[in-house]
From TrEMBL:
Stated role: Catalyzes the reversible isomerization of glucose-6-phosphate to fructose-6-phosphate.
Catalytic activity: alpha-D-glucose 6-phosphate = beta-D-fructose 6-phosphate
Active site per the UniProt annotation: 285 (proton donor), 420
SUPFAM superfamilies per UniProt: SIS domain
Pathway: Carbohydrate degradation; glycolysis; D-glyceraldehyde 3-phosphate and glycerone phosphate from D-glucose: step 2/4; Carbohydrate biosynthesis; gluconeogenesis
Gene Ontology cellular component terms for the protein in this record: cytosol
Swiss-Prot/TrEMBL keywords: Cytoplasm, Gluconeogenesis, Glycolysis, Isomerase
GO molecular function: carbohydrate derivative binding; glucose-6-phosphate isomerase activity; monosaccharide binding
Assigned EC number: 5.3.1.9
Name this polypeptide is given: Glucose-6-phosphate isomerase
Any Pfam family hit: PGI
Protein family per UniProt: Belongs to the GPI family.
Gene from which this protein is expressed: pgi
Length: 445
């Protein structure tokens, strides 16, 4: 077993038979994804990607990663949303917990995921004495946050190494033929990698978007693609009764239809924090539209049991939890006997910390079900590259099916434009003059 799904702990809140009612619709949703004829069908390239991915580009990614590892102490990955969360999820969950301080040949830092001058200035300070490379990632090539960071970091690199050497240290991942970034890459001769037209940002971690930073961090991208390929076959069966991935999509929709409005992704390993961030964008951008959708949030236990635990146990009853549980930790630690036993913990002596973590999980699930929170379980035997590939594919496909069940287009994100229009208008971008006046009036009220 690598990944499995279990909804037994939701059965107090729904009937098993409700899943069979969705059977025919899920056949339809499956066919929309595979035949590429449902809503948003121009963006389902990720479905066959683990089989059809461009092997030449994949080889180029590995070569570029090796070059980065050989000449750089650090790689700065510039991107936002789907252009960085997948890589960060992989690197954080698969590497040493303190990978930038220990055990990784090339450190990896992220920029362009915010507009904080303090963050970027601190990053530049950290990079001062290091040899660095940059991977700037933007499908559109025009997203403001990464574009600002790239302007500053590119300038920094050119000052440090001169234009010629900087060219060897800048890697661009963008559209194959269009956009500002592609134009710049062509003009300057930067090595460029492709985000396929038919794969949207949040579904792109298995393309060069994720693979170059992941490989530069020293992780095994062959294993990731193998896990994804096996997942392609494992979750290729249209029958919801035997397809775990489709069951997850079905169950979360059934619970949503009963008034649950928030899904918490629960982890017990801090290394999975960015996997949760990636998952939130995947489901949030795919489903949150037409005034519908489960709000995807995440909690890290047991840490957050001491902050959010009270609310989850007894607050407003509109929550569901999906626990992403890893059965074997990367490293075991045994709790020792203390002759003085002042803390009274000798009853734990001889047990591993993971045994305690697992009992915390079991106890929490029971308490939360008692408190009215249905619990779903996605279980991994361990967190490694192969399972990461499978997990990404599991969630991507579940998300596509789930959004179709919900009745929304899983592959667009029209709502993201609203803040951008206002920001551009307020900043005085040419073409936004009338909006600027209107918004300034509103701000003065
Ligand atoms: O890769 P790009 O075009 O810079 O976009 C980055 C992110 O911005 C969005 O377009 C909107 O938030 C996301 O869908 C995407 O992942």
């Amino acid at each position: 077993m690598s990944i499995s799904f279990d909804y037994t702990n939701a059965l107090g809140f729904m009937k098993d038979s409700e899943i069979s009612h969705l059977k025919n619709f899920i056949y339809q949703a499956h066919s929309w994804l595979h035949e590429k004829n449902g809503a948003g069908s121009d963006f389902v390239g990720w479905v066959d990607w683990p089989i059809l991915y461009d092997k030449d580009e994949f080889a180029r990614v590995k070569k570029a990663a090796a070059r980065i590892q050989n000449n750089s102490d650090a790689l700065v990955v510039i991107g936002i949303g789907g252009s960085y969360l997948g890589a960060r999820a992989a690197i954080e969950s698969l590497s040493h917990s303190f990978h930038n301080q220990i055990g990784q040949k090339t450190q990896v830092y992220f920029a362009g995921q915010n507009i904080s001058s303090t963050y970027l200035a601190h990053l530049l300070e950290l990079l001062k004495d290091k040899d660095i490379s940059i991977n700037v990632i933007s499908k559109s090539g025009t997203t403001t946050e990464p574009a600002i960071a790239f302007r500053i970091l590119r300038n920094y690199l050119e000052n440090k190494y001169g234009k010629q050497e900087a060219r060897q240290r800048i890697f661009v991942t963008t559209d194959e033929s269009k956009g500002a970034l592609k134009k710049l890459a062509d003009k300057e001769g930067y090595e460029a990698f492709v985000i396929p037209d038919n794969i949207g940002g949040r579904y792109s971690v298995l393309t060069s978007v994720g693979l170059l930073p992941i490989a530069a961090a020293g992780l095994d991208i062959d294993q990731i693609m193998l896990g994804a390929k096996d997942a392609y076959y494992k979750y290729n069966n249209p029958d919801v009764q035997t397809n775990d991935c489709y069951q997850y999509a079905a169950v979360r929709n059934i619970l949503y239809s009963k008034g649950i409005s928030n899904e918490l992704l629960v982890t017990y390993e801090p290394s999975l924090r960015y996997l949760s961030e990636w998952w939130k964008q995947l489901f949030g951008e795919s489903e949150g539209k037409d005034q519908k959708g489960l709000f995807p949030a995440s909690v890290e236990f047991t840490t957050d049991l001491h902050s959010m635990g009270q609310f989850i146990q007894e607050g407003k009853r509109n929550l569901l939890e999906t626990v992403l549980q890893v059965n074997s930790p990367k490293i075991e630690l045994t709790i020792e006997e203390d002759p003085e036993n002042i803390d009274g913990l000798n009853f734990l002596a001889g047990k591993t910390m993971d045994e305690v973590n697992k009992k915390a999980f079991e106890g929490t699930v029971l308490a939360h079900i008692d408190g009215g929170v249905p619990n779903l379980l996605v279980e991994l035997d361990q967190i490694n590259e192969y399972n990461f590939g499978e997990l990404v594919y599991f969630f991507q496909k579940a998300c596509g099916i789930s959004a179709y069940i919900l009745g929304v287009n899983p592959f667009d994100q029209p709502g993201v434009e609203a803040y951008k229009r206002n920001m551009f208008a307020l900043l005085g971008k040419p073409g936004f003059e009338s909006e600027k006046l209107e918004l300034e009036k509103l701000l003065q009220k």
